[in-house]
């Protein structure tokens, strides 16, 4: 449908956020707190990757060699978490749970020692523990574990509670339960002026923020292709009987015969065990994945066998080629002088009215406060040089024409 024929949404807002996962809601919340009129568009808020996530705020324990740019962002977000969570009260869950890293056997101990060396080289606080010390902190750990260390900086929240808390504060009037089909461009093709919704209406906005995770692949009218891919994960939720509480008090991250597994205790007496990582294209829960998670979790905490398994979930993480988010403004690659020379960065102007915040892969919950801060800084006209490495157009090598044919309006 041509933009001129569309039903125009009655309200023009300051900010339209496409996607109500943790990232979109975090941005919407921060933007609303800055005094802006914000509307979030999502047919099913909180049902994407955020529904599955364990909610570990694992800047240190998830640090991977050669991901220094990402480490800067994850550490910044970990720093921002307490201030971000404070106005939400205790509803988002527990920010103070420490993390224990545990090795299943001698080879796992060596692998964890190598990881610890990298973490220590970056000045990340880790504390080696003897097996005896680890078991005095967590008596339910298996006597046979081969080694352990503690990370005091990594904590957790409950993403489902976080989603519910932000939705409640934004209020029902701020959420449009529809799919966004395309961006709407101003007639001169230089500015995004909102989104077209599934019912054909337009939501006009001063700024549009694309934060719909993997769904951004299908949103028409983006000025650059977003190289997102689904990385599926199976994750389990179990209930700890009263007689076994607390099963563990820290988040236990283990390596068992080279395979990572984690156990995240919730304040309500439940336990999250995760997570597989597969790129087989299937969003069904994998029986093999469930089996391996339970087997490896039991190797570290044998009493896991006595818990009630009440939920198995599979969702896709929004992955990117370098495991880092697509976050920031996007250059108009078709602008005069922006011709691609096969590798040099373009010198085109950023598209006005558009910010992208997707591709948060394994770290979306951890990175929510940083994404929110960065987006609101951009709304305020401030672009922090430290985060340029995450520009959503960093992979674009050829001009992307799809914007021209979608959602133009007079
Ligand atoms: C098993 C598993 C465990 C994880 N554990 C952790 C963890 O411990 N810590 C951590 O930090 N991260 C974790 N993650 C990663 C984290 O879940 C994601 O990075 C994060 O949820 C991404 O949030 P999001 O808001 O970008 O996307 P999503 O949560 O996927 O939300 C996207 C939303 O956009 C909506 N949408 C899609 N298309 C449209 C459209 N066209 N119009 C409107 N709305 C649309 C969807 O309905 C959805 O609600 C885990 C992920 C998985 C799968």
Write out key terms for the chains shown.
410 residues; alpha/beta; FAD/NAD(P)-binding domain; D-Amino Acid Oxidase, Chain A, domain 2; 2 domains; eight-stranded mixed β-sheet; 9 helices; elongated; disordered N terminus; binds flavin-adenine dinucleotide
Question: What topology does this entry show?
Answer:
Elements (H helix, E strand, L loop, with lengths): L7 E11 L3 H12 L4 E4 L7 H4 L3 E2 L10 H18 L13 E5 L2 H16 L4 E4 L1 H7 L9 E5 L3 E2 L2 H12 L4 E2 L3 E6 L6 E6 L4 E9 L18 E11 L11 E6 L2 E7 L4 E5 L12 H14 L7 E12 L6 E3 L25 E5 L5 H16 L22 H4 L5
Parallel strand pairs: 1-2, 1-11, 2-8, 4-13, 11-18
Antiparallel strand pairs: 3-7, 4-6, 5-6, 9-10, 10-11, 12-15, 12-16, 13-14, 14-15, 17-18
Bound molecules: flavin-adenine dinucleotide.
Flavin-adenine dinucleotide binds next to helix 1, helix 2, strand 12, strand 16 and helix 8.
Give a structural overview.
By secondary structure, the chain is α/β, with parallel strands linked by helices. Strands 1, 2, 8, 9, 10, 11, 17 and 18 form an eight-stranded mixed beta sheet that branches. An eight-stranded mixed beta sheet has the order 5-6-4-13-14-15-12-16, sandwiched between helices. The chain is elongated and about 70 Å long. It has nine helices and 18 strands. It binds flavin-adenine dinucleotide.
Instruction: Write down the domain tally.
Output: 2
| Number of discrete helical segments | 9
CATH topology-level fold name of the largest domain? FAD/NAD(P)-binding domain
Label the overall shape: elongated
Strand percent estimate: 25-35%
Structural class: alpha/beta
Low-confidence stretches: 1-8, 334-347, 404-410
The helix content, as a percent range, equals: 25-40%
The radius of gyration computed from the alpha-carbon positions, rounded to a whole number of angstroms, is 22 Å
